[in-house]
Amino acid sequence: MGDPAAARVAKRDVGVEVAENQQAALLKAESVERLSILNKDRQGSLAAKGFSAQSALDSAIRDTEVAKADIAVSKAQIASAKATIQQRKAALDQALID
To answer: Of 12, 32, 70, 96, whose Cβ has the fewest other Cβ atoms within 10 Å?
Structure first.
């Protein structure tokens, strides 16, 4: 049988990795948002001049809203991962005391 403390540390390390992955997902979502805002602005300008279809602007607006939602999801996942890490640290600390 393995060392229980080592197993707990390994689980904590997995939690840290999940948090890091979520941080990367957040950075990606923020990048997608910036690009979608630029595209929305560009499509809005083109649509106002009659050079672009309204559907292209609608798609750009939708993409911006989706990017904002992805950012919110990433932030919530990061918060959840951090909470999990804190819970695991507390459990490990308690196990070390016991």
So the answer is: 96
